[in-house]
Amino acid sequence: MFDTLKEMTGGRGPDACIDAVGMEAHSSGIQFGYDRVKQAVMAETDRPIVLREAMMACRNGGRLSVPGVYGGFIDKVPFGSVMNRSITIKTGQTHVHRYLQPLLERVQKGEIDPSFVITHQLPLEEAAEGYKMFRDKEDECIKIVLKPNGNGSV
Fold it and tell me: How far, in Å, are 8, 80, 151 from residue 11 at the CA level?
């Protein structure tokens, strides 16, 4: 991933990175295993996989936004790298109630089309299976729309 980002940005890295995942991040490899073990022994509450990656990917002097939810303690965060590379971090929960209605109105007017992220549509009864598909990165799943009418159609 880092090589692709560097290549796309002329070797600098992105001007801004966003960690919108937070404590529920999933991954594989040694860092994920490390975080899972730390959680099992109650020495860590969150999985900062995406946070670490965003910190390391961001260009020197770049910005990191963290609207993702972190509830407690995290470990092995490369904060020295953030300091040495002068990365600005902004955090806080997203103000969903403030933006939801204006965004929905723009979608209804056709000013914003979010459909490009929807890869699957399922009936509401299949929500658990859909979550598993998303979590396990199956079938190139990015976003699932759950339909209450029971057939998964739009």
Answer: 8, 21, 47
Q: What is the pairing mode between strands 120-123 and 63-66? A: unpaired
Residues 85, 102 within the same domain = no
| Pair type for strands 16-18 and 120-123 | unpaired
Do 68 and 104 reside in the same domain of the chain?
A: no
Out of 50, 70, 91, a domain closes at 91
Question: 64: how many CB neighbours lie within 10 A of its CB?
Answer: 20
Domain of 83 in residue numbering reads as 2-91
DSSP codes joined into one string, 56-105: HHSPTT-EEEE-SB--S------HHHHHHTT-EEEE----HHHHHHHHHH
Q: Is 124 a member of any domain?
A: yes
Tens of pLDDT, residue by residue over 62-104, are 999 998 788 888 888 899 999 999 999 999 888 888 999 999 9
120 sits in which H/E element: strand 120-123
How far apart CA 97 and CA 59 sit, in angstroms, is 32
